[in-house]
Amino acid sequence: MRSRIGCADRDDVGEYDMLQINNLVVEVEDKRILNGLDLTVNKGEVAAIMGPNGSGKSTLSYVIAGKEDYKVLDGAILLDGLNLLEMEPDERAAAGIFLAFQYPLEIPGVATMTFLKTALNAQRRARGEAELTTPDFIKRVNAAAQQLEMPKDMLKRALNVGFSGGEKKRMEILQMALLQPSFCILDETDSGLDIDALRVVADGVNALRSVDRSFLVITHYQRLLNHIVPDTVHVMANGRVVRSGGKELALELEANGYADYRQQAAE
Amino acid sequence: MGAITMMKTPAEAGLAEAFETVKGRLPGRREAREQAFGLFSERGLPHRRVEDFKYTDLRAAMREVAPFAERPSRETAAQAVAPPSAFGSADAVVLAIVNGHFVREASRLDGLPEGVVIRSLSEALAAGDPLFERMKPVPAAIENPVYQLNAAFMTDGAVIHIPARTDVERPIHLRFVTTGDAPVATATRTLVVVDEAACVTVLESHEGPHGVASQLNDVVEFAVADRAKVAHVRLNAEGHDALALSTLTAELGEAVSFDTLNVTMGAGLSRHQVFLVFAGGRSLANVNGATMIKGRQHADTTLVVNHAGLHCTSRELFKSVIDDDATGVFQGKIIVEPQAQKTDGRMMSAALLLSEGGTMNNKPELEIFADDVQCGHGATSGALDEDLLFYIMARGISRAEAESLLVQAFLGEAIETVADEGAHDALVGLVEGWLKARR
Where are the domains of chain B? Predict the structure, then answer.
């Protein structure tokens, strides 16, 4: 069992690194996607990652969550000092990582409630906590569903099966609300959402913002960042972070596009 | 032309010797048994050059013949059925069939509606029960060596008669148990005659000890009259060294509803044959299967669905989960006779291979002689989807538990078809148990 430093021990320290990525080099099928990426996200911080198509944003999210097929050639990813690269995806989740997928998968035959309960209790077991009773579990799910304006019949279906794009994204946020992770990655959560759904999803995310929880918000567009206002913005190009700044950087990108960065990374 | 003398294998010689020994004391018409054994002897045990047995070579699998089981003592039978049954449905009527013999004292036959008759096969054969007149073997069975052997050797079993318009609320559970440390051979036959507009659920469980190479051959035959409704669930939970051959035949009248699910988890080598005939029109049959095998188990499902009536619908759904070095076989044939217009038949076999060493052989066939029909078949084999596994694991669920969720969902589609709540829940529990054991 991996030990984890309790938040209570470190509250007095103030802001410190929650996620630290150093010189990450990653290949997929012999193609180099991440090329010495450095990134630090502090505790309680909302960091946005922006960048053109193919810059490696989704790869970064998968590598943090632990997807196979990604060959890490160099570098380290530390969460609260834990070396994530040594851990299986389920161990990373129990340690606090949550990836909201760009394309959430449909799982025919697996009831949504069964899936949610299995996940929640697996994480609780991994952390040495007692499993939830069914009434307690249902209460939590209903509360989260209500906030995300999700009709109850969605919870009665197989996970994501027959859900619209927007419903799938809401289901991701519902899982996030239920699992209470300490580090949330939103991989293009805004894609496929209409304006109303975007607001609901953003409200759901904002409700989860806290001093103990960090976010990595991956997006192409500034639009999402009007709703989920970031503390920091990082620009990715050709597999590394090429510029970092405050939230105003997102506005600048929206106005000028990524052309400068493509060139800069290529040089 | 010179006669060709076929060399008999030791098992074939053993069967011939056993037949000579027992035929005089088996109940019923001896000529019928001799005729069946004669048909069997013409070709002997089927091997891989016999098309229907290409993937299940019985000549190679049966090296010798186990001695036919004697009738167990009352105490032995009582002990055999003392542990709770796999189906454990509290309100079921239970027929105990121990080592191939119907044991009335170990059965629980009370609470059946008036007119329902249950008697042992040996008694019915000896008395020349008129129900046998109504049970002509279906065409696919006559030519089948496994069925022929059963017809020659059938020792006991049951005859069940549900009279017209009788709704049998409690399921009738045929509980087959093989007991003892020494391998035995059994041949059982059960007839279920369901008259007009009657309704019945029949459960079948087959259990035996691991490490005992028994040879089992059971046949269950349904004759279902017009507008009757039958649900049948069969569980093979034999010991892992048993050789279990089984045949289900069904002849359906007009506007019948017939559902059967076979669940295979047990036996070292098993072959379950379903020979179904739509004799009347507008009937519906769901023929389903769920197989979970591991180690070096071999499980064969062979299906012949014969559409001879107008406007009938058949749905065949077979799910196989194969672990370790196990082998699954699915052979499914839908025949549509020239007069069977408006037939709607759909057959699907899907296999999930959990290991590198597993094998699945799929052979779907359609023989269509009518022109206004809808028929289709599909077969898939594959591993668990890695992207799905990652998605589930990313929520904190271990790989083993993620695999279990996906396997349960995969088999669920077949198991969900069971309407009897007790049987359904028992099967769900068995799947969970099987998955837990592999972690």
Answer: 10-385
